[in-house]
């Protein structure tokens, strides 16, 4: 432990000041309802014609300094909310990474990002422990009775936004970073996964199985040994740590040390108060808790980055044992759902850099010049373009194509190799190359058994094919993951009243049902918009045995949806509860 050890990197407050100075931040001090309007307001910055995720300006991040909720509460002076501050645009992402962005095209910026990540992986810097009394995130500590009791206690004191109002059934931390620990190695993994509020001292988390993420792999070990699992959620991380969350980092490295590699200086860490984990001392908020791996709780619906709602599943239930925070804190939230989105930018630039590193420096395919994972509407993991030097041998072209579909478990459903004269970030150019530079009988390969990954679950088998499949809708699908039309129109009025540039939709801008939905989830979403999410937490409070439903992400069948009886204020359970949907998850 080192007393008096000074911070040598930007925390979130420093980052916001730099974004503001660079003209990359909009500060909104008008009252903003976090349950109904905050995320739809920001959504207009993505679907409106005020700059896009593929241009540096005028796309900006948002700082809300006068947050309210549907219950009439005000959080002004206690807790602000920011959205888009990590990767609202390539320029903002560059600022988060500490990269000088001179307005070059996305490919040139991508090369700088690639070099930054490669350096961090090869040169991690060990974090340094500081005492609790010197950690900004330990200025206020809530434990015990301060967490219990529902309204105005614990988690209910934080202005956590609804992300997809009209469809989500609770406020979600969409930019929170989970800290978990490998029982065998002691290596701490930091991953960005959704987290919903259920009670003042309870929340749920969803960690992707299909991507082979560290959080899920760690959970498996605790379950096998019959031990409770300590977890901590980072809210408002320093930007150089925030970008690590959705990145695919080497499993043998502590992610806090990878962040130190990005910073070129050690991160400050502090011991958590109630769980045996390390936390970043310069975060805004840390939420500590425990998971019983033998139990799961119903979680979701939630709007996902692949453009549909993720419907109700059984996932991890977390008993919150402490909330530590700054006296004046800031919650980071991330626009995800239908791309273009902030999560799309961060994954596009992160994954492209990792894929380029894999092809050039692991497989030594030296002719690879660039890699681009397409974002808008597709959501990054489904369409990959590889740029190769002129006269690259056919063997190397196909080695690169096949490697790009296997480097990450579910990335590369459609992968295209192009020449250096094709801009991989321009879909029209890529389609032009496909239309006129291919002999389809010789140039196309379809291979089965690709992981379904982060996408609507397939109902007929637990995997899919690579490269080309029928894209029509074969069965009812969850709603489009955007706020409802009514709420988006209300948010546009607030946008106009705030004096911001007029917006004209360029992509889909409101959500609508595609058939795979039920009336109970609509009622839950309406309660969330009204600020009554605590009722939804009561509805799912009965935990189910993990083995009874087959494990995390097992779906809830439409006939097996639990309902909240408005007349009796009781929960009605279907016969045979818990019921499991009949589709499979590839583990």
TrEMBL record:
Gene3D superfamilies: UbiD C-terminal domain-like (3.40.1670.10). Residues 351-471 form the 3-octaprenyl-4-hydroxybenzoate carboxy-lyase-like C-terminal domain. SUPFAM superfamilies: FMN-binding split barrel, UbiD C-terminal domain-like. It is an enzyme of class 4 (lyase). Its EC number is 4.1.1.98. Residues 149-335 form the 3-octaprenyl-4-hydroxybenzoate carboxy-lyase-like Rift-related domain. It holds the Pfam family UbiD. PANTHER family: 3-OCTAPRENYL-4-HYDROXYBENZOATE CARBOXY-LYASE-RELATED (PTHR30108), FERULIC ACID DECARBOXYLASE 1 (PTHR30108:SF17). This is 3-octaprenyl-4-hydroxybenzoate carboxy-lyase. The gene is ubiD_3.
